[in-house]
Amino acid sequence: MSRAGGSNKGQRPPRQQSHSKLVNNSPNVMYHGTTKEAAESIKREGFRPSEDGMLGRGVYLSRDPSKASDYPLDVNPADRRVLEVKVDLGKVKKIDQQGHPLQKTWQTKGYDTAWVPPECGMVRSGREEDCVKDPSRIKVTKVHKPTSMSSQSHGSTPDEY
Q1: Beta carbons within 10 angstroms of residue 149's beta carbon
Q2: What is the pTM assigned to this prediction?
Q3: Top-level CATH class of 28-154?
Q4: Residue 153: pLDDT above 80?
Q5: 83 alpha-carbon distance from chain centroid
Q6: How far is the C-alpha of 103 from the C-alpha of 41, rounded, in Å?
Q7: In the UniProt record, does the keyword Magnesium occur (predicted)?
Q8: Fewer C-beta neighbours within 10 Å, C or N terminus of the chain?
């Protein structure tokens, strides 16, 4: 199922805690939390898909910068970075329940991205999550250093790029 929404031509998407819709026209601004070292590697070599996760193989992103600021979970917040990226979502499949028939197989059914909407019960934080099959659909535009894990609306400040 593809998700479509209104056009934001020339405008940056609003930064909100949760986004209820994905826009499948290109590009969508999303975020990826990682370590400082991994951010440098991703800038040089591009993303490498995770081998497994809640949605199977792919690159995990969110439209919520504060969610990305919380990752990786096991890393000191001072060593975290948030990559701001532009994503060509392609064909999107909404996965809105645990045990969904395509939860881990959407990649083999003609979809480019899987989307978990906010507050659907799949993610403990209640925030949305996305998994992109092909890393070449993702372009890093900025690297941010998270400044606050909960209080700041943007969740990050620009870092060197």
Answers
A1: 12
A2: 0.77
A3: alpha beta
A4: no
A5: 9
A6: 29
A7: no
A8: N
